[in-house]
Amino acid sequence: MLVWNDNGKVQITEIPPSIKAMELRLSPLRQQLHSHSLYNRIHHLSDIRLFMESHVFAVWDFMSLLKALQRTLTCVDVPWVPTPFPRSRRFINEIVLGEESDEYQGRAISHFELYLEAMEQAKADTRPIRRLLSSVSRDPGELIFDDVPPAAKEFVAATFQTIRNGSPAALAAAFAFGREDAIPAMFRSLVRHLSHTLDGELDLFVWYLERHIEIDGEDHGPLALKMVSDLCGDHPEAWEDASLAAEQALRARLRLWDGVLAQIDGR
């Protein structure tokens, strides 16, 4: 059940049975992700830099997945017409607001731009992601992956395949289980293993991690699950489509983490 509290925030009071069934189906993959050995291999600032240089591509393509959902669930054309699923419409607009223009130290900034600043503070290499941004600014169909870690390139390719070919239910499931729902536990594990290396060079990175723990764990994660339920409705084929998309998203994240781990171990 979905309700609005006194602060105007949307809350979920119960989880639909179909979501519980999907969570049970995905639990082996989620456990692999949450207990990935990458978290135990990050010991030094150089390890964090390698992690950020791959993870930034996931932070970036998250925005494209988010925008694909916004385009699906809302009307972005003129003249405007109302669209179905008003509760999910509200949620997606709420998360876009937070992701594109969150507040940090009195200024509005997207989480992606903040992540770039965190990389610069940590002296991680931002040139590959900036080249990619430059290429898509010139031509949205051109993705230049010069010097991009192979696992990050594969991760982006998997996301854009879902964006191009996925149903609304598939997009929502990839978003909920591959991103929002997986992030809190992943980032909590990472913060614990980073705690002994923190200094001024990681202040922004730690803020980013803690911010996602806050908003994804408490607000966006549960709402993303409701969005999946809204879009799947009572249609078994939609639930199966969503489950497959969620599995693909989790496997893509596992491969990304495997790639970062191989980089760290291969130095």
From TrEMBL:
What is any Pfam family matched here? DUF3050
- In terms of domain of life, where is this protein from? Bacteria
Name of the protein in question: DUF3050 family protein
Q: Which organism is it from?
A: Edaphobacter modestus
